[in-house]
């Protein structure tokens, strides 16, 4: 009886990808990134293992949302103390920490367990066009989301 071979450290190759988030729709971009982090685009995909690749996102400050989500989409966080709820809109968070928007969107699409936390460490998000990962020789990955109209 033959068993399905599991990927090992020797057989598994992890690539680095650079994704340009400029003028990309937030949700469409986040789903593609989550799929790559998970490794679902590879034939070696195994649900309980980290078979995914590293993703570097640049131009996070230029990501867009549709409709009135700029002022209606809310990001909540809690300090853990009574009355410690902080709420801010998409625009406010984009002005303060634009990287956090993509991080939160992708993290919500990863498994809610130890594997998901490990996969999340392979996501690197930067507001500008520069990133410190040139030594890893990342490949440019083009993600075609719906082009933004007038936003």
From TrEMBL:
The alphabetical list of record keywords is:
Ribonucleoprotein, Ribosomal protein
Q: Which GO terms describe its cellular component?
A: cytosolic large ribosomal subunit
Gene3D superfamilies xrefs: Ribosomal protein L13
Which InterPro entries does the protein's record reference?
Ribosomal_uL13 (IPR005822), Ribosomal_uL13_bac-type (IPR005823), Ribosomal_uL13_CS (IPR023563), Ribosomal_uL13_sf (IPR036899)
The domain of life for this entry's organism is Bacteria
Question: Some GO term, biological process aspect, for this entry: which one?
Answer: negative regulation of translation
Query: Pfam families from the xrefs?
Result: Ribosomal_L13
Give the protein family.
Answer: Belongs to the universal ribosomal protein uL13 family.
What this chain does, per the entry, is described as: This protein is one of the early assembly proteins of the 50S ribosomal subunit, although it is not seen to bind rRNA by itself. It is important during the early stages of 50S assembly.
How does this chain assemble?
A: Part of the 50S ribosomal subunit.
Q: Which named protein is this?
A: Large ribosomal subunit protein uL13
**Gene this protein is translated from:** rplM
């Amino acid at each position: 009886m033959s068993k399905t071979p599991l990927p090992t450290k020797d057989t598994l190759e992890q690539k680095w990808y650079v994704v340009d988030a400029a003028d990309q729709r937030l949700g469409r971009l986040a789903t593609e990134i989550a799929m790559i982090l998970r490794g679902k685009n590879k034939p070696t995909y195994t649900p309980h293992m980290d078979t995914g690749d590293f993703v570097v996102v640049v131009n996070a400050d230029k990501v867009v949302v549709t409709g009135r989500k700029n002022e209606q989409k809310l990001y909540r966080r809690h300090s853990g103390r009574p009355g410690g709820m902080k709420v801010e809109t998409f625009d406010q968070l984009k002005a303060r920490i634009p990287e956090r928007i993509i991080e939160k969107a992708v993290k919500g699409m990863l498994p809610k367990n130890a594997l998901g936390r490990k996969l999340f460490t392979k996501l690197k998000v930067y507001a500008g066009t520069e990133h410190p990962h040139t030594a890893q020789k990342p490949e440019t990955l083009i993600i075609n989301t719906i082009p933004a109209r007038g936003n």
